[in-house]
Amino acid sequence: MKQICILGCGWLGFPLAKSLVEEGNSVKGSTTSPEKIQVLKKTGINPFKIKILESAIEGEISLFLQNADILIIDIPPQLRSNTKENFVEKIKFLIPYIEEAQVQKLIFVSSTSVYADDNSTVTENTKPIPLTESGKQLLLIENILNENKNFKTTVIRFGGLIGNDRHPIRFLAGRKELENPYAPINLIHLKDCIGIIEAIINNDLFGETYNAVAPYHPLRLDYYTNKAIELQLPIPEFNYKNASVGKTIMSTKVEKRLSYIFQNTTL
Question: pTM of the entire structure?
Fold first, then answer.
Protein backbone atom coordinates (compact mmCIF):
# COMPACT_ATOMS: atom_id res chain seq x y z
CA MET A 1 0.00 0.00 0.00
CA LYS A 2 1.32 3.42 -1.00
CA GLN A 3 0.62 6.76 0.66
CA ILE A 4 -0.38 9.02 -2.22
CA CYS A 5 -1.17 12.71 -1.87
CA ILE A 6 -3.18 14.46 -4.58
CA LEU A 7 -2.92 18.22 -4.51
CA GLY A 8 -6.08 19.28 -6.29
CA CYS A 9 -9.07 16.93 -6.19
CA GLY A 10 -10.95 18.54 -9.06
CA TRP A 11 -12.25 17.20 -12.36
CA LEU A 12 -9.32 14.76 -12.75
CA GLY A 13 -7.92 14.60 -9.23
CA PHE A 14 -11.12 13.45 -7.50
CA PRO A 15 -11.91 10.41 -9.71
CA LEU A 16 -8.19 9.58 -9.73
CA ALA A 17 -8.16 9.61 -5.94
CA LYS A 18 -11.23 7.34 -5.81
CA SER A 19 -9.61 4.89 -8.23
CA LEU A 20 -6.37 4.80 -6.24
CA VAL A 21 -8.33 4.13 -3.03
CA GLU A 22 -10.14 1.26 -4.79
CA GLU A 23 -6.73 -0.18 -5.70
CA GLY A 24 -5.83 -0.34 -2.00
CA ASN A 25 -3.75 2.81 -1.60
CA SER A 26 -3.98 5.30 1.24
CA VAL A 27 -4.90 8.61 -0.36
CA LYS A 28 -4.86 12.17 0.93
CA GLY A 29 -6.66 14.71 -1.23
CA SER A 30 -6.79 18.48 -1.12
CA THR A 31 -9.59 20.86 -2.03
CA THR A 32 -10.15 24.58 -1.67
CA SER A 33 -13.86 24.04 -1.07
CA PRO A 34 -15.14 23.42 2.49
CA GLU A 35 -18.26 21.77 1.02
CA LYS A 36 -16.13 19.10 -0.69
CA ILE A 37 -14.44 17.89 2.49
CA GLN A 38 -17.27 15.52 3.36
CA VAL A 39 -17.56 14.37 -0.27
CA LEU A 40 -13.91 13.29 -0.24
CA LYS A 41 -14.22 11.65 3.17
CA LYS A 42 -17.22 9.56 2.09
CA THR A 43 -15.17 7.98 -0.70
CA GLY A 44 -12.31 6.94 1.59
CA ILE A 45 -10.04 9.90 0.83
CA ASN A 46 -8.36 11.67 3.75
CA PRO A 47 -9.41 15.27 3.01
CA PHE A 48 -7.49 18.50 3.53
CA LYS A 49 -8.58 22.07 2.81
CA ILE A 50 -5.50 23.64 1.24
CA LYS A 51 -5.02 26.69 -0.95
CA ILE A 52 -1.67 27.47 -2.56
CA LEU A 53 -0.95 31.18 -2.93
CA GLU A 54 2.03 32.98 -4.40
CA SER A 55 3.51 33.80 -0.99
CA ALA A 56 1.53 31.65 1.46
CA ILE A 57 -0.25 28.33 1.88
CA GLU A 58 -3.60 28.17 3.63
CA GLY A 59 -4.14 24.85 5.39
CA GLU A 60 -2.08 22.09 6.99
CA ILE A 61 0.31 21.47 4.12
CA SER A 62 2.98 19.78 6.29
CA LEU A 63 0.45 17.30 7.68
CA PHE A 64 -0.91 16.74 4.18
CA LEU A 65 2.55 15.80 2.87
CA GLN A 66 3.61 13.81 5.92
CA ASN A 67 4.74 10.23 5.07
CA ALA A 68 3.84 10.70 1.40
CA ASP A 69 5.37 8.16 -0.99
CA ILE A 70 4.07 10.03 -4.04
CA LEU A 71 2.75 13.55 -4.54
CA ILE A 72 0.53 14.33 -7.54
CA ILE A 73 0.21 18.03 -8.37
CA ASP A 74 -2.98 18.65 -10.33
CA ILE A 75 -3.81 22.31 -9.80
CA PRO A 76 -4.23 24.04 -13.17
CA PRO A 77 -3.06 27.65 -13.52
CA GLN A 78 -5.85 30.21 -13.27
CA LEU A 79 -4.86 32.38 -16.22
CA ARG A 80 -8.13 32.94 -18.06
CA SER A 81 -9.83 35.18 -15.50
CA ASN A 82 -9.38 38.89 -14.92
CA THR A 83 -7.17 38.16 -11.92
CA LYS A 84 -4.35 36.19 -13.53
CA GLU A 85 -1.97 34.48 -11.15
CA ASN A 86 1.73 33.71 -11.15
CA PHE A 87 1.49 29.93 -11.10
CA VAL A 88 5.28 29.58 -11.12
CA GLU A 89 5.61 31.47 -7.85
CA LYS A 90 2.94 29.28 -6.24
CA ILE A 91 4.85 26.10 -7.06
CA LYS A 92 8.14 27.67 -5.97
CA PHE A 93 6.55 28.46 -2.61
CA LEU A 94 5.34 24.85 -2.31
CA ILE A 95 8.69 23.18 -3.05
CA PRO A 96 10.34 23.73 0.38
CA TYR A 97 7.42 21.90 2.00
CA ILE A 98 7.88 18.98 -0.40
CA GLU A 99 11.59 18.89 0.47
CA GLU A 100 10.91 19.11 4.21
CA ALA A 101 8.49 16.18 4.00
CA GLN A 102 11.15 14.23 2.08
CA VAL A 103 8.73 13.25 -0.67
CA GLN A 104 10.76 11.16 -3.12
CA LYS A 105 8.42 10.87 -6.10
CA LEU A 106 6.23 13.47 -7.78
CA ILE A 107 3.84 13.58 -10.74
CA PHE A 108 3.14 16.96 -12.29
CA VAL A 109 0.07 17.29 -14.51
CA SER A 110 1.07 19.56 -17.38
CA SER A 111 -0.32 20.23 -20.85
CA THR A 112 0.52 19.91 -24.54
CA SER A 113 0.21 23.70 -24.65
CA VAL A 114 3.96 23.74 -24.00
CA TYR A 115 4.39 22.88 -27.70
CA ALA A 116 3.99 25.39 -30.53
CA ASP A 117 1.22 25.17 -33.13
CA ASP A 118 3.52 24.82 -36.13
CA ASN A 119 1.76 21.97 -38.00
CA SER A 120 4.43 19.50 -36.91
CA THR A 121 4.25 16.00 -35.48
CA VAL A 122 5.24 16.22 -31.82
CA THR A 123 7.01 13.69 -29.61
CA GLU A 124 8.67 14.06 -26.22
CA ASN A 125 11.89 14.87 -28.10
CA THR A 126 10.29 17.94 -29.71
CA LYS A 127 11.58 21.18 -28.23
CA PRO A 128 8.73 22.90 -26.35
CA ILE A 129 8.04 26.43 -27.60
CA PRO A 130 4.92 27.59 -25.73
CA LEU A 131 2.93 30.44 -27.24
CA THR A 132 0.34 30.96 -24.49
CA GLU A 133 0.90 32.32 -20.99
CA SER A 134 -0.37 29.06 -19.54
CA GLY A 135 2.05 27.02 -21.64
CA LYS A 136 4.96 29.28 -20.72
CA GLN A 137 4.31 28.99 -16.99
CA LEU A 138 3.78 25.22 -17.16
CA LEU A 139 7.10 24.73 -18.96
CA LEU A 140 8.92 26.85 -16.38
CA ILE A 141 7.43 24.72 -13.61
CA GLU A 142 8.36 21.49 -15.42
CA ASN A 143 11.97 22.66 -15.59
CA ILE A 144 12.04 23.79 -11.95
CA LEU A 145 10.71 20.44 -10.74
CA ASN A 146 12.93 18.36 -13.02
CA GLU A 147 16.05 20.24 -11.91
CA ASN A 148 15.35 19.59 -8.22
CA LYS A 149 17.48 16.66 -7.08
CA ASN A 150 15.54 16.11 -3.84
CA PHE A 151 12.79 14.18 -5.64
CA LYS A 152 12.10 12.52 -8.99
CA THR A 153 9.45 14.20 -11.11
CA THR A 154 7.43 12.64 -13.89
CA VAL A 155 5.68 15.17 -16.12
CA ILE A 156 2.50 14.22 -17.98
CA ARG A 157 1.53 16.55 -20.82
CA PHE A 158 -2.17 15.90 -21.34
CA GLY A 159 -4.07 17.03 -24.42
CA GLY A 160 -7.61 18.40 -24.25
CA LEU A 161 -9.50 16.67 -21.44
CA ILE A 162 -12.88 15.09 -22.11
CA GLY A 163 -15.18 12.75 -20.22
CA ASN A 164 -18.45 12.65 -18.31
CA ASP A 165 -20.18 15.93 -19.23
CA ARG A 166 -16.96 17.66 -20.29
CA HIS A 167 -16.49 18.00 -24.03
CA PRO A 168 -15.34 21.00 -26.10
CA ILE A 169 -18.28 20.66 -28.52
CA ARG A 170 -20.61 21.90 -25.77
CA PHE A 171 -18.65 25.15 -25.81
CA LEU A 172 -18.15 25.28 -29.59
CA ALA A 173 -21.67 24.29 -30.67
CA GLY A 174 -23.30 26.94 -32.82
CA ARG A 175 -20.32 29.27 -32.76
CA LYS A 176 -19.22 31.00 -35.95
CA GLU A 177 -15.86 31.84 -37.52
CA LEU A 178 -13.94 29.17 -35.59
CA GLU A 179 -10.29 29.07 -36.57
CA ASN A 180 -8.16 26.14 -37.75
CA PRO A 181 -10.72 23.83 -39.42
CA TYR A 182 -7.94 21.68 -40.91
CA ALA A 183 -5.91 21.29 -37.72
CA PRO A 184 -5.94 17.86 -36.01
CA ILE A 185 -7.54 17.26 -32.62
CA ASN A 186 -5.47 16.17 -29.62
CA LEU A 187 -7.87 14.97 -26.93
CA ILE A 188 -7.76 12.41 -24.15
CA HIS A 189 -10.55 10.81 -22.13
CA LEU A 190 -10.69 10.98 -18.33
CA LYS A 191 -10.44 7.17 -18.08
CA ASP A 192 -7.14 7.23 -19.96
CA CYS A 193 -5.80 10.09 -17.83
CA ILE A 194 -6.40 7.95 -14.75
CA GLY A 195 -5.08 4.80 -16.43
CA ILE A 196 -1.82 6.45 -17.48
CA ILE A 197 -1.16 7.95 -14.04
CA GLU A 198 -1.82 4.58 -12.40
CA ALA A 199 0.48 2.85 -14.92
CA ILE A 200 3.29 5.27 -14.03
CA ILE A 201 2.78 4.58 -10.32
CA ASN A 202 2.49 0.81 -10.72
CA ASN A 203 5.56 0.62 -12.97
CA ASP A 204 7.52 3.04 -10.75
CA LEU A 205 8.54 5.18 -13.72
CA PHE A 206 9.64 8.49 -12.29
CA GLY A 207 12.01 11.07 -13.68
CA GLU A 208 10.42 11.00 -17.14
CA THR A 209 8.15 13.07 -19.41
CA TYR A 210 5.14 11.71 -21.30
CA ASN A 211 2.77 13.11 -23.89
CA ALA A 212 -0.72 11.77 -23.23
CA VAL A 213 -3.18 12.13 -26.11
CA ALA A 214 -5.47 9.53 -27.66
CA PRO A 215 -4.07 8.11 -30.94
CA TYR A 216 -6.94 9.63 -32.92
CA HIS A 217 -6.41 12.86 -34.86
CA PRO A 218 -9.24 13.73 -37.27
CA LEU A 219 -9.50 17.31 -38.47
CA ARG A 220 -11.31 19.78 -36.22
CA LEU A 221 -13.85 20.46 -38.97
CA ASP A 222 -14.80 16.80 -39.34
CA TYR A 223 -14.64 15.88 -35.68
CA TYR A 224 -16.67 18.74 -34.24
CA THR A 225 -19.23 18.66 -37.04
CA ASN A 226 -19.84 14.95 -36.50
CA LYS A 227 -19.86 15.32 -32.71
CA ALA A 228 -22.45 18.12 -32.90
CA ILE A 229 -24.67 15.95 -35.09
CA GLU A 230 -24.20 12.99 -32.74
CA LEU A 231 -25.20 15.03 -29.67
CA GLN A 232 -27.94 16.95 -31.53
CA LEU A 233 -26.24 20.30 -30.98
CA PRO A 234 -25.95 23.26 -33.38
CA ILE A 235 -23.13 22.66 -35.87
CA PRO A 236 -20.22 25.10 -35.47
CA GLU A 237 -19.11 27.15 -38.46
CA PHE A 238 -15.44 27.57 -39.35
CA ASN A 239 -13.35 30.32 -40.88
CA TYR A 240 -11.63 29.02 -44.02
CA LYS A 241 -9.90 32.28 -44.97
CA ASN A 242 -6.93 31.92 -42.64
CA ALA A 243 -4.42 29.09 -42.86
CA SER A 244 -5.00 26.36 -40.29
CA VAL A 245 -2.31 25.85 -37.65
CA GLY A 246 -2.02 23.06 -35.11
CA LYS A 247 0.06 20.03 -34.23
CA THR A 248 -0.25 16.25 -34.01
CA ILE A 249 0.75 14.98 -30.57
CA MET A 250 2.13 11.44 -30.51
CA SER A 251 1.77 9.27 -27.40
CA THR A 252 3.91 6.39 -28.64
CA LYS A 253 6.13 6.57 -25.55
CA VAL A 254 3.14 6.03 -23.27
CA GLU A 255 2.09 2.98 -25.28
CA LYS A 256 5.58 1.44 -25.43
CA ARG A 257 7.19 2.45 -22.14
CA LEU A 258 4.10 1.82 -20.02
CA SER A 259 2.67 -0.96 -22.21
CA TYR A 260 -0.48 1.12 -22.07
CA ILE A 261 -3.49 0.48 -24.31
CA PHE A 262 -5.80 3.47 -24.70
CA GLN A 263 -9.38 2.72 -23.60
CA ASN A 264 -11.08 5.53 -25.51
CA THR A 265 -9.60 6.11 -28.96
CA THR A 266 -12.57 7.39 -30.99
CA LEU A 267 -13.67 9.92 -28.35
Answer: 0.96
